[in-house]
Design goal:
- The chain is mainly beta and 637 residues long.
- Helices cover 5% and strands 59% of the residues.
- The chain contains five helices and 34 strands.
- It has a 22-stranded antiparallel β-barrel. The chain has a five-stranded mixed sheet with strand order 3-8-9-6-7, with no helix packed on it.
- The longest helix is centred in the first third of the chain and has 14 residues, at 2-15.
- The radius of gyration is 24 Å and the shape is globular.
- The two termini are 34 Å apart.
């Protein structure tokens, strides 16, 4: 029904292209800070970037930031549970640890496990924009920036002195005891900006094997920014995030797994910046503390782990002129864990980096960069990268080549090391080497007045990639607390893995007389991974082989309709003991219809998630919900 009604609308939009507002061009080629740290138009970075404005998040049929990312073109989210319970983030066929998540310049990747990287401790209404940088980025960001970078930029930290105020909130109710609520506010004048918000998602959940897939997910965050004078600005953020949920078969495929988990996160961030003439300096420090309580089943001893991340980052930028700028920086990290399962460990990391952004003429831009990274466990790594772009009119060609690195997290090194007896499960390996890879990509873009098309060919060549592989007891390097009859998966370095792919992103933005608007985003990605390891590994085989995802929205002064869709094909998997399976393909879609009671201020809506009631799982055993009906009210002032 929706597709038939959309056809005449789409035809009318094509006929009326000349009426599109000029400012839409800047939305299709936005200024970014993720690719080069210094602000520059995305077309001058030599990279494939996607930018989502924060104000658009509330318009989509989504309820958490991992669901937002799921429909960004070319971004694969392997969900274990709905509405923020847990998801793995994947870009360009990497593993879930190979995507770096950044908030206002500081990394939040958890040193315990990458499974927590989607727990972003910011309320969506506080977000100015989300920048997704695809491909190798270790020359600037270091470990984990292999498949790409997700950069969350908040309104308060991006504050430039423009007075503004807003307040928004909403309530959603639905099937399976669903009750979600959110509220947030923002105020700024010429010197001060403050923001605060809270969000909660709760449900009894759909039936699983012996339990219901319940979740209780809460985030509270607040931030302030103050201009000390015309040159100096200080900003501070404090956030608390708590997630309690059913975690059945999130990490195993055993029938005895009826797990429950609770993860709480404290996030503190302080930034001091100086800007005068052609000089810009920023110093930031951040502290993250995570408590993880995981119970495999009611009769097992729960795992209790506390991880800590203390970091400091200093960046200096000098603009020689409009065509040449230099960015240099230094970074320090202290990662720690205290766990009854993984033991007590601390690792230090430090790095220095530099990058140059040079416009050789009005068409050609190059951005070389290099980083010297030191990790206490892995030693020194020199990480170079070169990006280049050439733009003539509406057309652009670009290319990038660079090295990436990733250091093993505490779960990969020490999982199940501190227990008296382990009868089955995943076993860490403290002798893991750091991952290394080299990435190449070449792409082309077309920038129209109302649409942008970007296509990229890429290849990533890994050595020593880390993944889990089923390993016989006799081949385990350490047997002290293992059973000879157990079934184990060992964290291992894969000697070589080559991932090749092609991706195309499409953005379409249309407005006419500020009365009607139509936006559409779509991504197409094909991937192939080959290895000479000689043994089967888990996460290297879990990424989609082909995926199409995206969203569209049609809005008028009286109503709006939003649709998200996702289709993927991948390798089939099965676990007969839990009747679990990964099908070779699936398609899911969500639909949201808004009616505006008071224009731009009050709306009511109805929503259907997984509208076709598709039975599917992204990861073996972690069954996703079927059709979920809900409705709510939202206000904005």
């Amino acid at each position: 029904m929706f597709a038939k009604s959309a056809l005449p609308v789409a035809a009318g939009l094509l006929v009326s292209m000349a009426a599109i507002a000029q400012e839409k061009s800047s939305e299709l080629d936005p200024v970014t800070i993720t690719a080069t740290i210094n602000p520059v138009a995305s077309s001058k970075t030599g990279r494939n970037l996607f930018v989502l404005k924060g104000e658009d998040i509330a318009k989509l049929p989504v309820h958490s930031l991992d669901e937002v990312l799921r429909y960004i073109p070319g971004f694969e989210v392997q969900a274990r549970g709905p509405m923020g319970a847990q998801s793995d983030l994947v870009l360009r066929g990497g593993t879930f640890q190979q995507v770096l998540v950044v908030i206002d310049g500081l990394r939040i990747n958890d040193p315990n496990t990458g499974h927590f990287n989607s727990y972003i401790p910011v309320v969506p209404a506080e977000i100015e924009r989300i920048e997704v940088l695809k491909g190798a980025s270790s020359a600037i960001y270091g470990s984990d920036a292999v498949g790409g970078v997700v950069h969350i930029i908040t309104k308060t930290f991006a504050y430039t002195g423009v007075p503004s105020k807003s307040f928004s909130g909403g309530v959603t109710g639905g099937a399976y005891g669903l009750l979600n609520a959110n509220a947030s506010g923002y105020y700024s004048n010429e010197k001060l900006a403050v923001s605060a918000g809270a969000q909660t998602n709760n449900a009894d959940g759909q039936a699983q094997r012996g339990i219901d897939g319940y979740f209780h997910l809460h985030t509270v965050s607040a931030a302030a920014s103050y201009k000390l004078n015309n040159q100096w600005k200080i900003a501070y953020r404090s956030s608390f995030d708590s997630r309690k949920f059913a975690a059945q078969n999130f990490y195993t495929s055993f029938a005895s797994d009826t797990a429950a988990e609770k993860v709480t996160t404290w996030w503190q961030q302080l930034a001091l910046s100086y800007h005068k003439n052609n000089n810009h300096f920023t110093w930031q420090t951040g502290y993250k503390h995570v408590n993880d309580h995981y119970g495999y089943n009611p009769s097992s001893i729960a795992n209790n782990s506390k991880s800590k991340l203390l970091q400091s980052l200093a960046v200096y930028e000098h603009s020689f002129n409009n065509d040449l700028s230099l960015v240099t920086g230094a970074q320090f990290q202290q990662k720690g864990i205290s766990s009854n399962d993984r033991g007590n460990h601390t690792v230090y990391q430090a790095a220095g980096f530099a990058s140059l952004n040079a416009a050789l003429n009005k068409h050609f831009t190059v951005s070389p960069g290099v980083r010297l990274d030191w990790d206490e466990a892995s030693g020194y790594e020199l990480v170079p990268q070169l990006n280049a772009s050439y733009k003539q009119g509406s057309f652009q060609v670009r290319g990038s080549a660079g090295k990436t690195i990733r250091n093993a997290d505490f779960t990969e090194r020490y999982n199940n090391y501190n227990k008296t007896l382990v009868t089955s499960g995943r076993i860490g390996n403290p002798d893991l080497s750091a991952e290394r890879s080299f990435s190449y990509e070449a792409g082309a873009d077309y920038f129209g007045k109302n649409f942008r098309v970007s296509t990229t060919l890429f290849q990533r060549r890994h050595s020593d990639l880390i993944d889990w592989s089923t390993t016989a007891y006799a081949d385990m390097p350490r047997k002290e607390n293992l059973s000879a009859t157990g079934t184990y998966a060992l964290a291992r370095n894969i000697s070589k893995l080559i991932t090749s792919g092609w991706e195309t992103d499409v953005q379409w933005i249309y407005t006419m007389n500020n009365q009607r608007s139509f936006t559409a985003n779509a991504g197409f990605i094909w991937l192939n991974s080959e290895t000479n390891a000689g043994f089967a590994s888990f996460y290297t085989n879990s990424h989609a082989k082909f995926m199409v995802n995206g969203s569209l929205r049609y809005s008028t002064p009286l109503f709006a309709i939003s649709v998200n869709g996702l289709y993927k094909t991948r390798e089939a998997q099965a676990a007969a003991n839990i009747k679990g399976q990964i099908t070779t393909e699936y398609f899911v879609a969500s639909v949201k219809a808004d009616v505006f009671v008071i224009k731009n201020k009050l709306s009511v809506y109805a929503e259907a998630d997984n509208v076709f009631n598709r039975s599917y799982a992204d990861l073996l055993g972690a069954q996703m919900p079927g059709r979920w009906l809900m409705g709510g009210i939202r206000f904005t002032y």
